[in-house]
């Protein structure tokens, strides 16, 4: 089916992408897209390269995906950059990822700002180096008034950890006597999540073939649609995002209810 619609091209400037950008029903687009950027290591291994080469190539894929999200006027894009479990990886790889993250902010923040992107970060940021925390704070402040796509980077993030932190925050208020446990509801809990200023996730995209959430945005994806591809993240193009958005636009979302047309 996809070959018939999109052809075999991986050209990010393809006529397919341009056509979809111009003709897709924007009222059927997701407000919030979340991406699990998987497959950097597999991409590198498949080419006989070291894993770090895959991570570097993955940054390029992120840049073009953010540009595409802006082209489609998506409200929010959240990407899974580094999980609370990723610290288990070899020290050399972790150090490289942190350096790459720092370099990405240094090199790309000016362009993101000029393109009206608002960047934010979710996760246990106090677990990062002081220098990286400062870069994150500077990037936030620089783009805080931008009105384009809300670009959220999950760093040292885990969905379970986020839930624990939210519950601890509520428990502190109960302990202090400023909150009655009977008044705790889903809206109040959501207000303590890292994503409190964002709409619920509508679409989750995962690359590289695995079919699982991997501790990503557990609460926020309760009624999200999922789109999986075997493509490794470094090979993910604007066409791939367009395919996912088109597929989403054709789905029947009932949120536990019934389709009124049936």
Helical content, roughly? 40-55%
Shape: globular
- Radius of gyration, Cα only, in angstroms? 19 Å
Strand residues, percent:
5-15%
What CATH architecture would you give? 3-Layer(aba) Sandwich
- For the biggest β-sheet, the strand order reads 3-4-2-1-5-6
Sequence stretches where pLDDT stays below 50 over 5 or more residues: 1-12
Q: How are the elements arranged and paired?
A:
Layout: H1 2-6, H2 15-23, E1 32-36, H3 40-46, H4 51-71, E2 76-83, H5 91-114, E3 118-122, H6 130-143, E4 150-157, H7 159-176, H8 186-190, E5 203-206, E6 225-228, H9 238-249
Parallel strand pairs: 1-2, 1-5, 2-4, 3-4, 5-6
Helix pairs in contact: 2-9, 3-4, 4-5, 5-6
Describe the structure.
This protein is α/β, with parallel strands linked by helices. The protein has one domain: Undecaprenyl pyrophosphate synthetase. Helix content is 44%, strand content 13%. The chain is built from nine helices and six strands, in the order H-H-E-H-H-E-H-E-H-E-H-H-E-E-H. A six-stranded parallel beta sheet has the order 3-4-2-1-5-6, sandwiched between helices. Helix 6 links the parallel strand 3 (118-122) and strand 4 (150-157). The longest helix has 24 residues, at 91-114. The model is unreliable at 1-12 (pLDDT under 50). The active site is at 38, 86 (proton acceptor). Mg(2+) binds at residues 38, 225. Catalyzes the condensation of isopentenyl diphosphate (IPP) with allylic pyrophosphates generating different type of terpenoids. One of its GO terms (molecular function) is magnesium ion binding. This is Isoprenyl transferase.
